[in-house]
Write a structure and sequence with these properties.
By secondary structure, the chain is mainly α. Helices cover 63% and strands 0% of the residues. It contains 4 helices and no strands. The longest helix has 17 residues.
Length: 93
């Protein structure tokens, strides 16, 4: 039993399209809107599917990216010092 009321404003074109589709499906406008809302909510569960799909794609893409195997997990922290040292050695006379 429906006890709740929800109303919102729509454009005249959207209202016409909704009414036309409800008639085509031989439903009342409220039944068509209920159906549309239920289908939309079911599709909302796809966010978790999308998250899993994104995670899979990221793992697959990671195999294409190079890795530095220096064995130094703090390499980024000492990069500035290492670059300066190499430049100093290269340009030393």
């Amino acid at each position: 039993m429906k006890t709740e009321v929800y109303s919102w404003r729509v454009s005249a074109d959207l209202k016409t399209d909704l009414e036309r589709e409800a008639r085509r499906r031989k439903l009342s406008l409220s039944a068509a809107l209920d159906l549309a809302a239920q289908e939309w909510l079911k599709k909302g569960d796809g966010d978790q599917d999308d998250a899993a799909r994104q995670q899979h794609l990221q793992r697959a893409a990671a195999t294409c990216f190079g890795k530095f195997a220096s064995g130094n997990p703090r390499r980024a922290e000492s990069a500035r010092q290492a670059v300066r040292e190499r430049l100093r050695r290269k340009h030393a006379r």
